[in-house]
């Protein structure tokens, strides 16, 4: 425990005096360095959180929270299974789907795509694709109507629009007297969608589930069920519970498993950015070392006088630790205030900067995400503030130890 005397002297040394203007300037720059480092750390990680959330939202706009299927790709009694699954905790909805690889052509233009059969009236229960329709009407997907909804990039690659016809070729084959022929069918483009993910906008096409079942020869079967859960982050746990409760041998997957590599890469990038920006904070924090060493050198005679008055080396050490901690606390507080302020207003500040300097950071015709998103996580803020404080405390130890080893006789020899 330090006494009020040590706190008083430590705080007094942080103030400006006439003969220590330069030291006070170095103290101020150390404080501002910590503040800028913490501000950058909070802002950058908040922006990365925003991008991660935006990408997750766009992925889940097409991908279900979880899927249930069979290992042979044919789920026959799906109606009873859907009723059973919807009675399970955390499951909000279950709808059937048919999915398979296909080739779509328009004249000489050909592109591979995933053909997904959906029930238009139920699709909105498990995905947001209906809300991303750019043109046309999803209601035109009717059984036997052979309508198709293409992703915007896929439609552009094929050079088709609403009302045009395309040929869909499935990997199924038909054996005829003339030989083996692929199964193909003409579909009419009734709408296009754009979810903002190239993977889906370029490689997915939607048709009615009945038409897809006929094309892939599933008869009354489907490929599986798509589920919507009450908590998307609890999908792995819910899938494990369903696997234990459902009778029969089913194949269950959740969204995090299907996109595991993508989100693992995002988390790795966030971790690397945290380490890099923490090093910036560390550089600023360890400027406190040079500041306190200069203070110790300047205050050698004061330390010697205090020692002759009976103050202990431990108390001398505590005086300079307090001074360094004050610098760290003030710098961290300024950094947290600045970082939180920027993170909460980044979506307003960035457009203002773009308008002022006539620039565009994320052009809408190049990037799917044309605005800089931000999502502040308070646990991240506390971790960053704690790291900055810890680095500031560590930076004070050596100068404080040097001050505590000051010998009064040597310090006052030439006074």
* N→C terminal distance: 32 Å
Order of helices and strands: HHEHEEHEEHEEHEHEHEHHHHHHH
Class per helix and strand makeup: alpha+beta
Overall 3D form: elongated
β-strand amount: 15-25%
Major sheet attributes: 6 strands, mixed, barrel
Approximate helicity band? 40-55%
Low-confidence stretches: none
Give a count of the beta strands, DSSP E runs of length 2 or more. Answer: 10
- Kindly provide the radius of gyration, computed on alpha-carbon positions and rounded to a whole number of angstroms: 33 Å
* Count of all domains: 2
Number of helices in the DSSP assignment: 15
Task: Explain what the structure shows.
There is one protein chain. With 415 residues, this protein is of the alpha+beta class. It folds into two domains: 4-57 and 263-411, no CATH class; 64-257, no CATH class. Helices cover 53% and strands 20% of the residues. The protein has 15 helices and ten strands. A six-stranded mixed β-barrel has the order 2-3-8-5-7-6. Strand 2 and strand 3 form a beta hairpin. The model has no long low-confidence stretch (mean pLDDT 84).
Annotate the secondary structure layout.
Elements: H1 4-13, H2 21-60, E1 66-69, H3 78-86, E2 91-106, E3 109-118, H4 120-123, E4 133-136, E5 147-151, H5 152-158, E6 165-176, E7 179-193, H6 198-203, E8 204-208, H7 209-215, E9 224-229, H8 235-245, E10 251-254, H9 255-258, H10 260-285, H11 287-298, H12 300-308, H13 313-357, H14 378-404, H15 408-411
Parallel strand pairs: 3-8, 5-7
Antiparallel strand pairs: 1-9, 1-10, 2-3, 2-6, 2-9, 4-7, 5-8, 6-7
């Amino acid at each position: 425990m330090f006494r009020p005397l040590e706190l008083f002297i430590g705080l007094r040394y942080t103030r400006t005096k006439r003969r220590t203007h330069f030291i006070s300037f170095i103290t101020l720059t150390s404080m501002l360095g910590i503040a800028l480092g913490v501000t950058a750390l909070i802002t950058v990680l908040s922006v990365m959180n925003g991008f991660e959330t935006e990408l997750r939202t766009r992925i889940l706009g097409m991908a279900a929270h979880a899927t249930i299927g069979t290992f042979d790709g044919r789920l026959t009694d799906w109606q009873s299974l859907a009723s059973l699954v919807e009675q399970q905790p955390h499951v909000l909805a279950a709808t059937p789907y048919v999915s398979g690889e296909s080739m779509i052509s328009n004249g000489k233009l050909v592109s591979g795509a995933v053909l997904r059969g959906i029930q238009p009236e139920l699709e909105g229960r498990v995905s947001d694709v209906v809300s991303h329709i750019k043109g046309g009407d999803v209601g035109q997907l009717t059984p036997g109507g052979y309508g198709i909804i293409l992703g915007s990039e896929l439609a552009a690659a094929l050079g088709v629009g609403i009302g045009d016809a395309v040929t869909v070729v499935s990997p199924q084959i038909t054996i005829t007297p003339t030989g083996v022929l692929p199964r193909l069918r003409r579909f009419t483009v009734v709408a296009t969608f754009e979810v903002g993910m190239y993977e889906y906008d370029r490689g997915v096409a939607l048709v009615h589930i009945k038409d897809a079942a006929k094309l892939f020869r599933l008869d009354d079967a489907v490929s599986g069920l798509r589920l919507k859960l009450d908590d998307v982050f609890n999908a792995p746990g819910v899938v494990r519970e369903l696997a234990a409760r459902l009778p029969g041998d089913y194949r269950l997957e959740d969204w995090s498993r299907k996109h595991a590599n993508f989100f693992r890469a995002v988390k790795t990038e966030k971790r690397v950015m945290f380490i890099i920006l923490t090093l910036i904070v560390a550089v600023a924090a360890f400027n406190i070392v040079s500041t306190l060493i200069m203070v110790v050198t300047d205050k050698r005679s004061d330390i010697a006088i205090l020692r002759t008055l009976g103050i202990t080396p431990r108390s001398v050490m505590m005086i300079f630790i307090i001074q360094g901690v004050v610098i760290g606390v003030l710098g961290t507080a300024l950094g947290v205030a600045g970082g939180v302020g920027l993170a909460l207003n980044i979506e307003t500040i960035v457009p203002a900067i773009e308008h002022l300097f006539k620039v565009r950071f994320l052009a809408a015709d190049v990037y799917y995400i044309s605005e800089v998103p931000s999502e502040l996580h308070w646990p991240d803020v506390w971790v960053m503030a704690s790291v900055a404080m810890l680095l500031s405390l560590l930076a004070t130890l050596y100068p404080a130890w040097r001050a505590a080893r000051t010998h009064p006789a040597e310090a006052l020899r030439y006074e």
